[in-house]
């Protein structure tokens, strides 16, 4: 009897976990689509003086903001699974330049650095407009007709 309760509890927790992750997966795919629509052609490097902000875009990309209206989408070769779970990151650079294939994203003491395989500039104005559209609530007025089951 105790085994059945444990199995039912585990099944319920798994079901609740699956339900909770569905909206997260949708938000993640919307965020990836917004960035994909707002990036430009790949560049070899960018000037880096300070990290204003950052945002993981899946486990293979991270958006780096060097200023409020200047951002770069970095593709991470081989992925960087811990990028979604860390509170802070760092970037390597050489003479204030972050370069493809040479510099890395640092996620913590005991983790491997994530190599930057591609850098693309982000049109922040376009990104914000796309994200605003994604947040719009789609609503429609209810029809005045009652369903057939209620009309009797």
From TrEMBL:
Signal sequence, renumbered to the chain: 1-25
Keywords associated with the record: Signal
Domain of life of the organism encoding this protein: Bacteria
InterPro entries associated with the record: DUF6491 (IPR045500)
Name of the protein: DUF6491 family protein
Origin organism lineage: Bacteria, Pseudomonadati, Pseudomonadota, Gammaproteobacteria, Lysobacterales
């Amino acid at each position: 009897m105790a085994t059945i309760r444990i199995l039912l509890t585990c099944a319920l927790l798994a079901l609740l976990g699956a339900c909770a992750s569905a909206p997260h997966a949708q938000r993640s795919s919307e965020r990836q689509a917004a960035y994909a629509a707002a990036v430009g052609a790949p560049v070899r490097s960018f000037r880096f003086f300070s990290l204003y902000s950052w945002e993981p875009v899946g486990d293979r990309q991270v958006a780096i903001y060097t200023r409020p209206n200047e951002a770069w989408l970095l593709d991470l070769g081989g992925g960087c699974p811990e990028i979604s779970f860390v509170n802070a990151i760092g970037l390597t650079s050489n003479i204030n330049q972050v370069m493809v294939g040479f510099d890395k994203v640092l996620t913590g003491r005991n983790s491997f650095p994530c190599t930057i395989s591609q850098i693309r500039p982000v049109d922040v104005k376009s990104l914000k407009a796309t994200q605003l559209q994604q947040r719009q609530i789609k609503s429609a007025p209810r029809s005045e007709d009652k369903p057939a089951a209620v009309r009797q």
